[in-house]
Amino acid sequence: MKILLLEPYFIGSHKDWAEELKRFSRHDIEIWSLSGHHWKWRMHGGAVTFARRFNESTLQPDLILATDMLDLTTFLSLTRTRTANIPTAIYFHENQLTYPWSPTDKDTKLQRDTHYAFINFTSALTADQVFFNSAYHRQSFLAALPEFLKGFPDHNETNSIEAVTEKSTVLHLGVDLQALRDLAPKEMTLYKRAVILWNHRWEYDKNPDEFFRALFTLQDRGMEFKLILLGKNYGKKPPIFEEAKERFKDDILHYGYAESKEEYVHWLYHADILPVTSYHDFFGVSVVQAMACDVVPLLPKRLAYPEHLPEAYHTAYFYEDEKHLLKRLQRLIFNARVIRKQNSHQYAMKYDWGSIVETYDTAFEKIKL
To answer: Does an H or E element contain 89, and which?
Structure first.
């Protein structure tokens, strides 16, 4: 098959997913992209730019695959003379209906944010097939649609939700985890104390306050551990990171963004425990990456995380509330030498492209008008 992949926000996990899908798929995938900046404008204007390019080209793909950052309805309306007989699919990395908006975003105060969610809804309604990167993501999006549509004054068209539901399925995120396994350090520094990892964005939706509150409490109890604080900050980082930097200044092995994949993987392999406190994760690629490097996860029983581990192991890897998090984390720190022998990668590798790409390729082949 010849597949045209349209990605208006080509950065981070969006970029990795597109490039890796192209590399591992047996299909011929051509990527059209725009830089990963100005996400709101990409959702508005990206479709116009791609439509112009498509109309100027001679390309006639067997499938058009868009991501959630594209206004698919606008793209198809502007290219209708050439795309009317081409099947389309949309892949939801995230959605703007259930994505938690930052309280500092001026669009929240101006009450303009519903339009981006509406773009996601109409794009899903337009596509022939809708893919979500986790079962949690699919369920939460579909469950939020009735209330969202009822918020409009009339002609709410809630019956259209059934059409979206029927053509929606889960296609878990593919990640090149084998590449992380291949970069495992040949020599490891073994620390006497447990090493705790943070490897998410430095933003409010990842809930760093609860993460560091737990560590502060354990420090006050006299517990000793090391810290690796990885991640990218896309704006003003939560102030608690600076407080943590000061409080743990003698125990931080790394603080800030890793400038290369090799450096990032190096630190993952030197971590023991990944306590996760996020309010939001449609999939949780940073969690899966850490697990692939045999970091032991300690996860809240919410969002997409329960999908990452067999249910039989949920008691071992999940916590119920902040009090339970403290209890479980303290026990893991005490047993650092034991948990270092665990092979967490066995649960994560189902998302490796070597395991999942056949599911992708077959799903694409089944899409019909």
So the answer is: strand 88-92
Question: Is residue 367 within 8 Å of 128, Cβ to Cβ?
Answer: yes
Cβ atoms < 10 Å from Cβ of 196: 28
63 DSSP β-pair partners:
3
* Sequential DSSP letters for 111-137: T-THHHHHHHHHHHHHSSEEEESSHHH
Residue whose entry in the numeric block shows the structure tokens 């790409």:
357
Q: What is the pTM of this model?
A: 0.94
User: Please, what's the b/e burial string for 250-285 (b: 16 or more CB within 10 A of its CB; e: otherwise)?
Assistant: ebebbbeebeeeeebbbbbbbbbbbbbbbebbbbbb
Give the span between the Cα atoms of 231 and 201, in whole angstroms: 5
Determine the Cα–Cα distance for residues 134 and 171; give it in Å rounded to an integer.
7
d(Cα 95, Cα 40) in Å, to the nearest integer?
A: 12
pLDDT digits (tens, 9 = 90+) for 64-103: 999 999 999 999 999 999 999 999 999 999 999 998 766 6
Sign of CA dihedral 327, 349, 310, 145: positive
Predicted confidence (pLDDT) per residue in 182-214, tens digit = 999 999 898 999 999 999 999 999 999 999 999
119, 133, 115, 126: which is closest to 164 by C-alpha? 126
Kindly state the average pLDDT of the residues 284-296: 98
Write the CB contacts of 177 (distance below 8 Å, at least 6 apart in sequence): 288, 289, 292, 345, 348, 349, 351, 352
| Rounded Cα–Cα distance for residues 317 and 295 (Å) | 11
Diameter over CA atoms, the chain: 70
